[in-house]
Amino acid sequence: QVQLVESGGGLVQPGESLRLSCAASGIAFSVYHMGWYRQAPGKQRELVATITTSGSTNYADSVKGRFTISRDNAKNTVYLQMNSLRPEDTAVYFCNAKHILSRRLDYWGQGTQVTVSS
Fold first, then answer.
1. What pLDDT digit, counting tens, does each position of 15-58 carry?
2. Torsion over CA: 47, 51, 53, 56 (sign)
């Protein structure tokens, strides 16, 4: 049974930081590209950041320079370090795993809420 479990969300003030974690189980983590997506109320889900099996990263323009994605294959975990948070970063953040070869093997976590407000 595949599980992606996000944690680390919460309520912070503008300018503060949070680190999200996504622990994966039931998959061969090292052969999955990992990503973080977010969905704000009334908006479509959007890509935040991705990291490939080889460690290459990609970021949405809105988070470049503020967010950092990383992975620890020994712990089957992907992280999203979020600095200088803004109210517009408020959303539910979802973890995603995509198999390096098979499009069928595409999994999502349940999401974790991030709220940035003064």
1. 999 999 999 999 999 999 999 999 999 999 999 999 999 999 99
2. positive
